[in-house]
Each structure stands twice: as structure tokens, then as C-alpha cells.
Amino acid sequence: xxxxxxxxxxxxxxxxxxxxxxxxxxxxxxxxxxxxxxxxxxxxxxxxxxxxxxxxxxxxxxxxxxxxxxxxxxxxxxxxxxxxxxxxxxxxxxxxxxxxxxxxxxxxxxxxxxxxxxxxxxxxxxxxxxxxxxxxxxxxxxxxxxxxxxxxxxxxxxxxxxxxxxxxxxxxxxxxxxxxxxxxxxxxxxxxxxxxxxxxxxxxxxxxxxxxxxxxxxxxxxxxxxxxxxxxxxxxxxxxxxxxxxxxxxxxxxxxxxxxxxxxxxxxxxxxxxxxxxxxxxxxxxxxxxxxxxxxxxxxxxxxxxxxxxxxxxxxxxxxxxxxxxxxxxxxxxxxxxxxxxxxxxxxxxxxxxxxxxxxxxxxxxxxxxxxxxxxxxxxxxxxxxxxxxxxxxxxxxxxxxxxxxxxxxxxxxxxxxxxxxxxxxxxxxxxxxxxxxxxxxxxxxxxxxxxxxxxxxxxxxxxxxxxxxxxxxxxxxxxxxxxxxxxxxxxxxxxxxxxxxxxxxxxxxxxxxxxxxxxxxxxxxxxxxxxxxxxxxxxxxxxxxxxxxxxxxxxxxxxxxxxxxxxxxxxxxxxxxxxxxxxxxxxxxxxxxxxxxxxxxxxxxxxxxxxxxxxxxxxxxxxxxxxxxxxxxxxxxxxxxxxxxxxxxxxxxxxxxxxxxxxxxxxx
Amino acid sequence: xxxxxxxxxxxxxxxxxxxxxxxxxxxxxxxxxxxxxxxxxxxxxxxxxxxxxxxxxxxxxxxxxxxxxxxxxxxxxxxxxxxxxxxxxxxxxxxxxxxxxxxxxxxxxxxxxxxxxxxxxxxxxxxxxxxxxxxxxxxxxxxxxxxxxxxxxxxxxxxxxxxxxxxxxxxxxxxxxxxxxxxxxxxxxxxxxxxxxxxxxxxxxxxxxxxxxxxxxxxxxxxxxxxxxxxxxxxxxxxxxxxxxxxxxxxxxxxxxxxxxxxxxxxxxxxxxxxxxxxxxxxxxxxxxxxxxxxxxxxxxxxxxxxxxxxxxxxxxxxxxxxxxxxxxxxxxxxxxxxxxxxxxxxxxxxxxxxxxxxxxxxxxxxxxxxxxxxxxxxxxxxxxxxxxxxxxxxxxxxxxxxxxxxxxxxxxxxxxxxxxxxxxxxxxxxxxxxxxxxxxxxxxxxxxxxxxxxxxxxxxxxxxxxxxxxxxxxxxxxxxxxxxxxxxxxxxxxxxxxxxxxxxxxxxxxxxxxxxxxxxxxxxxxxxxxxx
Lengths: 669, 533
Description:
Number of strands of chain A: 2
Strand order of the largest sheet of chain B: 1-2
Distance between the termini of chain B: 30 Å
Strand content of chain B: under 5%
Number of helices of chain A: 29
Number of strands of chain B: 2
Low-confidence stretches of chain A: none
Largest sheet of chain B: 2 strands, antiparallel
Oligomer: heterodimer
């Protein structure tokens, strides 16, 4: 079978899974829902591998195919087909998405066991995977927007999955609305592309764009900036990032799958996918790179002070996506995509480990209350350490190779781009510190009561379900979140998922060692062959030099974290007092939420209130006041309606119409 | 075919008067279902390759005045007719499942309303159109006034209805005057004819077009309703019985939009071009105002009502983009909006039954024991906010793309309505279905009775989401012809049929366009494809 046929199957299985689970919510036992859901994604992964094999059987320059099923909406010159585009980039994304998703489904199978919304959860989760695959396989901009919005919806649905919590529904709404703003950016970009090129089809757009646009022409810059609005909203880059930390209201497997490993990297994919346009608009590409850099640093500083375990990891996600955005924007396409892959492994793993620990804490997410889990939960601790090492770019782990490849490329471009190298390494230092801040506070030390309970009695701590954001008690009538908590030590599916990811986090970097194998680069490079920037290559020597610096910085960061949180545990508090205003500033996340609230939300609501309370009464109703006389005259008619007059009138009407109808039936036949 | 389609509801309605009381509703439902069957047959037999009228009936009615009884189907009204029959079947069935006072009269009025609406869609004679347009008012006057509910803190149902009648009657009278004037001026002393096709052959002089345009526009904009002319809507929406409101909101508002495409664009092309921007401003104001109001309202009916104002604003904007894709989108969106607002109001009725209130702030948590209802509601909500992947998105996409090509600044303003629609639609869903359940609110699954009303409507939404081409491919030719009339006027100029190639400078700035407001590359006027017919 051809690669495109396999790709259609990749789309089919998750969609079927979602529909079957949703329709069978009464008939299927809960376990079956989980098995169907996991199997559907597993099959999609298998088909993805088959597509890869089919693609590898062809010449590198011929590895791109379009295929379409039917005209979706093609009239008046618009060409919108239900079509997919298969090339190494989309297949790479398919493999990352389905691979990680399979493991996360497996994890959810254990983790969500006692939740009564099991069917709903797996149906949404499968729908999400379908949407994400649609996004990466779409063959034109309209279908891209469809996939783009579908993942936004799936994200909304899963964030507010525990919909009895008002914090969850509010967070879902926030994510959805910000993502709709991103969708609008994409829609406008599509309009502009269509106006200039007369098509929405990827293959045609990318082939024609270099012939039509001059470099840095305002139109193509505008297109790219609009695409960036979409990319930033989805990938939580400044200033559209505020929804991501709130999205941690969703169950932890959701944070792991959607808000770390896959969906939030869609923006990176989009920039890589439209690299032809960005190559024509270097200004827009530079803007993207600088936004990525700013996000990387801002998020890393916030992650240093967050006390909520999941939110701290969420800020880390933002920061790492910043690296990817920098990568694909400055031209390090395959490096950026490679970092996307390794990040998917270690970040998904970190969230899973966090989920396991939060379960052991009976939903408590505050790291100030955690310690000593190293003894209580061996497996979770070891896998968490693996994820942490990869995130901190410890020499030899996957994150080490992928992050440094981006920075080596920035060095190779030289000039202004050295800023990215320098600040990128600074970000890496912060990354190592905040990662090991979490690890040193949670794993070693004297066990906290919950950990002690686990060690002493072997019981997972039990508490009445409560909302970790507000401390409010959940109503138990609902049955979700489930009353019981599941930790990796007690659940085989969770262990398999985490073990596989830990392996990936540690060793996936070895497929792309500079000067040795570079598998990912060789596979992806033909996609980016056409643009100038793809011909900039750092020398192998320079790459190894960069790796050496990276190694030193990573070790230094871990060392600093050790000093602060293990050797001298009183220093953080002292620092916090010394720089209290800075701490407050960071702890309040640079006041982005407040700024958006002040600039957007309040004015909109104020306008709404004005329209409702003042305008509607004075202007709109005022127009009628002149006709008041008519109304009071009409009042007499109304009284007739209420008397028996209505019947008489109706009879008259009926008679008249019957006559008319009869007449026409006779005449026209 | 068209004749039997038109009169079947009324015939059933009249025969229904002698049916036993408790069967009246079922008899009426049977009538609407039969009409639906005829409409489906019409749809199947439709030749999508033709732009002109099909299945025409043309009888000399009042020869002395040149009034013909002439009906016909083309791409403009085909799916609106289908929509009418679908929604009426659903609305009548929903009403039949519930106890109605004076059922004979209620269902007679319902069916009379269907005939009148179908007549307005089918009429190809200007005066016949006006007559059916006004006839629509009669049954709804009684349905709202006599079966509506009085509000404690507001006007009685009768007063609310009267307000609606005053508004629409003024519009209707203006339209009647305009219709007669059109025919007389066009005849220029010769034989008077009200045939829309004939009138379109020789447009009036510019001076007459100007005022007649506004007389028609007034009637249509009130019906929609558009911004500043929507004063009747809040009271009427709160008073109306919900099954009636579902068909009213789903279909009648579209008659106004349809009127623009059927009558105004072909008959008054010069005035249309001249006032394009004025109407677009009204449309944008409707979008923004409707959206803003929709997210501040706490009454569930009014959220639906104001969201309709915004949606009809989109439809108007699509028509007045004066390009084929904009108008294609508008027709598609008329069907889409009908298909979402009717189930939305049915759901509102169901929710109100469970909670005993229509106040959003007092609802919540109703998804708990009602997963099917929640799923159906969610699909309707997503379609309402024009989620990409729904046919509503395709409609908005076409509308905005048409607008983007002809009036780029308007497109940018209009698209902000999309973000707001996401907020108000989700807010409606969340406030009713999610969060904690206050005391006294029941969370109960829908029974099969509500299911057989709702599920088919939702299936229609899903079906169109998968294949919006079904509508687009059948409407495109007629729509393009309707829009093409305006391209001959001031808007004219060589259509740009090819995409740019390198070296060619960005498109020239057309006078009157706001290109200086935006970045350097200005919009082309006319749009590349809009006038390619």
C-alpha cells in the first residue's frame, strides 16, 4: 500500500475509536473503553510505521504525496478538498504523536481507573489524537484549520473534564477563547494566501510562493505574522500563553499528552510546515525567534518560583517550546523537530511521574508539602529522575543532544543570532536549576506524612476528593475525580508507559549524534531542501564544542540546585526575603493575567454592560416611543384577540385561503 | 410539485380541524412530514447544473395588474425550502408531544405559517412575494400573542407581540409601496408586470433605485432583525412559545436575507453597489452588538436571540460582499443557522422544563445524569460558534473570504465576532450543563420523545459538516447569477482571473477602499473570482 493509504488509516482508527467509545458508553464496560481507546491509537501508530516504511522505499526527493477523498467545499474558485499531504515531516509528527499517545493511553488506563467518566475520557482522548493527526496530515490550509480547531476543542473538553469544578470550566473557557483567537490568525492568513496565490493547497502554495513573492515583501510578512498568531496561541508563546498553566486543571494524563507532548508543539510544526513562506519573510521569522527566546526566558524564571508541581512543569513546557520556536524560526528545522520529539518523551514522562506523586499525595500539588518520595516510591522516583536529567540536558541524555543542536545552529549563523546562543545557554542554566529544584525537594529528605504512610503501611494516602486549586471539597455524588488514587508502583500499565518513556528520554538522543549517525536530520532534510537556510550547517567540531559547553552548564545548574535545596536548604528562603519584590513579580507570573484582564476582558464586559443597560433601553427602545400611540391603539385589537374574536377571524382567514388554494389547484393542474 | 409542496401544510391544517382533539398534533406533524417528503423529492430531482428556475408554475392571476401566481425553485431557495420543512416537522412534533391549549387552532396556525413561509421562498412574482411575506405575520401574531407567556417584570405576551407587529408591519407596508412603485416605474406606461425575472431585465433609473432599495431593505432588516431595528426581538423572544420560536427564529429571519438575494440585488443593482458600505456597516454593527449582548444576557432565550442578530449580520455581510463566494457562504449560512438555532431553542425548552427557570445564573450541572442531552447540546453549541469542521465554519469562511477580497477592513472587524461567538456559545453551554448543580435543578436524561426531535436535527448538522459541498454545489450557479447583476454597475472592471506572478506589483488601490488603513498591499476591487461569471 502507498504511504497515503496508510496515512488515511492512521486517521481512521482514532476517529473510529472515539465514536465507538462514545456511542457505547452504556453498553461497553469501562475496561473495554480503555482497551479500545488504547488499541485504536496503537493501530494508528502501526499504520504510521507502515507509512514510514513505504516512504523510505522511495527516492528522498520524491517523498511527498497528496491524496484527497472528496470536494469538501469547492465552488466559486475556492479549492477545498478533504485531502492529506504525506512527507517526512508529517510522518515524523505522526510517529511522535501516535507513539507518545499510545503510551499515555496506557498510563491513563491505570491512572483513571476509579473515575466514573472513563468512557468520556477515552472518547475525548481518542478524538484528540484524531484531531492532532488531522492537523499534521492536512493537505491544505482549510483542513489544517479544522485540525487546529479540533485539537483546541479536545483540549477544552479535557481541561474542563472535571466539569463540576468551576476552576476547571473557567480554565477550559480561557484556553478555548485564546485558541479561537489563534484560529482567527490562521483563517486570515489563509485568506491572504488565497488572494495572492489562488489556492489553499499546500503543494501548490509552497511551489508557487517563491515565484510570486519577493523576499520580505509586506504581503508575505503579513501572512507569516498571521500564521504566528495561530502558532503562538497554540504553543503558549508570549503573550498568548496564559491559558497553559491554567490548563493544568485537567487530569494529569491530559497535561502529559496535550499540554506537554503533542498539541502545544503544533505551532512549531506549523512554522516548519510553512518554512517556505518564512524563508521569504525573514523579518517575520526573526520576530518569531525573538518571541520564542523571550518566552523561553520568562517561562524559565517563573518555573523557578512556582510551588504547584504541575504548573511548574507547565512553565517548563512553555520554555522548552520556546527553544523549538527559536530553532525552526532561525532555520534549524530538523533540530527544532528533533527537540520536539525528545521533549515529548521526557516531558510526558515528567508529567506521568508527577501524576503518580500527586496521586500518592491524594491530589495535593504543592511541592512545599512533598518530600522523601525517593524512598516511598522507587519506580516513580527513578523515572522522574530520568525525565529530569533529560530536561536539564545532562550529558548523554536526549535533551542534551537536541537542545544543543539548536544552539549550535544559531552559532553557525553568527552575527545577531549569537544572541540566541548566549541567552539559550542562560536558559539552559535556569532549566537545570528549576528541574532539580523540583527533584531535590520531592525525592530526597525526610518523608512527608503521605510518603511515610506509604512506607509504613503500604497504603496510598486517602483524602476526601478536593479541588487542589481552591481547597474546596468535591461533591461525591459525581464519581469523578475518582475517590481512589493510582500510583505507578501499583499499576502495570502505568509502569510500562513510564518505563518506555524513560528509555526514550535517556537514549533517544543517540539517534542524532553529531558526526556519527544523524538519523533524524537525514530523514527530515529533504523536506527543507528548497530554502536557503537549510544549507547552513554547523561543522561537527563546532557542534561538539557546543555540546561541551552545554554539558558544563547543565552540571553547573544541577550543582547550584544541589547547593540551594540540599546542601543549604535555608538559602532559598533567604534569597526570597532579600529579593522579595522580584519574587513577588515572578510568583505572579510577570502579571500577564492581570494585564490581559485589564486590557481585554474588562473593556469587553464594560461594553457589554453599557449595551445591555443603557443603549438597549435608551436608543433601541427609544425608537419605538414615538409609535406609542400606535401601540395603545393596537391595545384595543389585542383585547379583541383575547375575546372570541380570534375564532371568527381565524375562520374568515381559513375560508379565504381554502378558496384560494382550491382555485390554484384547479387552475395549475 | 411546487404547488403541492406549497399548499400541503395548509390543506392538512384545515382538515386537522375535524380531527379529534388529542390527535390534532399528530395530524399536523403528519402534514409537515408529508411536506418534508415533497421537499426531499424536490431536492433529489434538482438539476444542480442549471442556474435558472426549475419546477416553475406560472399562472396569470390578476391580468389587469400584471400579477402572476408564479413559483419556482433554484439554487437560492432550494435549501431554504428544505430547511423550512425540516424545522417545521421538528417544531410541530415537539409541540405535539406537549399539551397545547386549543390544539386545533394552534396547529392550524403552525401549518398556515409553513405555507406562508414556503410561499415567500417560492414566489417569483414580486407582489406574490410581498403577499406571502405579510401572510407570515398573521399566524405568528396569533401564536405569539395567544399561546405566549406573560412576563412578570415585563410586557404581556400580547403587548410584546404587538410591538413585533408594529415593527414588521411598517417594514411590510414600505415594501408593498416599493413593490408597486417598482412595477409601475419599470412599465413606464406600458404593460405592468411584477415578474421578478422580467423586472431584473431592465433595472430602474438610479434615482428610483435609491429610495426603493431602502424601502425593501427596511422590511428585510427588521425581519432579520438587524442592529437598531431589533427592538421587537427581546420582548417577542421572551413571550413566544418555544416550539414556535424555534421555527420562527430558524426560518423567518432568513426570509429577510433571502429577500436581498432574490429581489434587491437583481432588481436594484446600482443602488446595491452604492449603498454596499452602508449595509455592511449595519451588518458589522449587528455582528458586534449581537455578540456583545449575547454574552451579557442571562436569559437563555435572549442569548439565542442576540446570537441570531450576530449570525444574521454575518449573512448580510456575505451578501453585501457582492462576490460569488460571499453570497455562497451566506446561503449556506442561512441553512446552517436555521439548523443550529432551532435545536438550540428546543434544548432551551428542555432545560427550562428541568430547571423551572430560564435564567442562566440559576442553572448549572445538568450534564451530570444526562450524557446524551449534553452531547447533543455540545454539538449544537460547537456548530453555533462556527467551529472549524462544521458547515457553519465553511459558511463563515466563504462569507469572510468574499468580504476579505472586496472590503478587507470590514472583514477584519467582522472576524472579531467569531471570537466573541466562541465565548457566548460556550458560556451558554457551561452555565447550564457544567459547574455545580444548584438545588431545585433537575439533571434528567431526555426521553425518546425529545430524542426523535433533536437527534435528526443534530444528524443534519453532522451530515452537512462532513459534506457542505452538497449545498454549495447546488446554490453556486444561481447565487453567482444573482450577484453578477451588481458587477455590471460601478463595481465593474476586468475580473482578475489569475493569481499574481513575480515582478507584478501588489494590486492597485481601488478608490474608496480603505487600503491605506491597512498594510501596503491593498485589496483588489473587484475580487478576483467574484465577478468571473
